[in-house]
Specification:
With 270 residues, the protein is of the alpha+beta class. 37% of the residues lie in helices and 27% in strands.
Length: 270
Amino acid sequence: GGGGGGNAVLEIRAGAGGREAAMFALDLWRMYEICIKRQGWKAEAINVEKTDDGGARAVSANISGKGTYDFLRLETGVHRVQRVPTTETQGRTHTSTAVVVVLPEPTKHELPEVDAKDIKVDTFRASGAGGQHVNTTDSAVRLTHGPTGVIVECQSERSQHQNKAYALKTLRARIYAVLQERALAERRAAKEEITGSITGDRSERIRTYNIPQDRVTDHRSGESTSAATMLTGDALDDVVLTLQHTERLEKLDGALDTLLVATRKLAGDS
């Protein structure tokens, strides 16, 4: 698979819950940014689609440093927050979600050859919060890759040239992920034929952040931690270590199951 020791592309999107979901998406980005920088790695936002009221519809970032993909890959999935919005007068708790996707940044030799003629380039004005234009030139860039349908936007205070370079880097990583996903789906289908097991979909809810009760529960490890220390980026290291440990145990279990199924089949055939 994609190099576990390499860099990563991190994407966060506001899910269900409107304004609250956008606030949460930005909270998650801050959590990752703090934690990543504390590890001595680099977190560079390529695109932040801010909302008028202090949230973000989407965040894309390049994360670089040895082992960043391995550290962040288990963050992929649906993150759910339960909290009382500042606008809520009755004190009711609202539930919203954000979707996190972590892709390996392909290494030079893994990068798919992207033909320039397959890429449609659009330039537009970068818009800030509230829709006002950050600058008067068309410095924001949108790239569309015909064969896979992948679209990447990059708008920042940088020049059009820099934005295009960033967008191209992200486009390649996403195309790579699409091709990887296809190859993985084919492998999975082949494996299911052999073992008859269905693997869980990666879009499942993986973690709930309950703010009123100051509790974050990871649904894969079953472990809980304080929401306050989680969102300030202080607890993420421990949560990731626990998850990696859980994953190793599950892989062992899975390997044993596959072995048992194969043994039974052999016993049945003889």
